[in-house]
Amino acid sequence: MRMTARPVMVPGIALAIGALLQVNVGGQAAAGGGQNAGPAPGETLSESYRGSQRDNVEYQKIPPIKVFDNLYYVGPGFVSVWLIPTADGLILVDTAQEPYVDHVIDSIRKAGFDPKNIKYILLTHGHLDHFGGASKIQALSGARVATLEEDWQLIDATYKAPANPNRDRALGPVLKRDMVIKEGDAVTLGKTSLKVYKLPGHTPGSPSFEFTVYDGGTPHKAFIFGGPGQRNGVEGGTQFLASINRLMREQQDVEVPVHVHSWLTTYPYPGGGIIERAQKLAQRKPGDVHPFVDNATWRAWLKIAQAGTLKYLEDEKAKAAR
Ligand SMILES: [Zn+2]
Fold first, then answer.
1. What is the pTM of this model?
2. Coil, helix or strand for 42?
3. Which residues contact 135 (CB under 8 A, 6 or more apart)?
4. Residue 255 sits in a domain of what CATH number?
């Protein structure tokens, strides 16, 4: 199946999947002017969503992107929400947070799917930018919401924490603990199966998912690394290093790294973020390689992350010894 000719608008840039890239120089912005903004000097487009344009709500509302036959980007610009359609319903990976949840629901519809058909919402970790929309989308769809025990604990703690106006604005209705997945499980819907890994370090859980994407029917090994940047000092750094080392041992053959943010701030991804690759995809000609199929930069990224984590651990240990 080839890409449909659905036009995909990215702020400042009009993407027509399967057609030529057009650069929209000014003008055409919706009221409010948010979409007229762009990256700051020295910033890439993907980076701008987590950098200078982080709080620009209209700028963040990018249209859905069909990346593979069975993988769509339906998030705002700064945090990924991935839609995996199957013969028996939809799987959503992460949900973004308010005020973007209606945009996510809208993007699912614009991509041609009914959000009521979501059967599973898989959460890559218990941070609000990933789970904040889960309760709203669950209420709409009746989907099961799943993550690891460690990340459920983080989610529970978020709702129990003292009031914080900044955070609470992004907090949807309470997400109740639902399905607990664990390392080695498979989440299966239709013929699609996602194998669950626990790769801690960003959080104590950080479920990650291995599955197959199809490009015009051709299968590729895809992998969602749930927490692709270390946190929490020596303990988190040590866990993260072990996770990276494990990926280097077991997952050298990943062809499609499926990122949880369009731009990874801790270890920026070589070869561009999601938006840059989407632009390349829009310009792709028959016979060209798919710009998201890129085993070489996955392996390069693992090396960057490993070296960065060793340095992080050194610094954290020095701090702890002071
Ligand atoms: Zn996080």
1. 0.89
2. coil
3. 172, 173, 174, 175, 176
4. 3.60.15.10
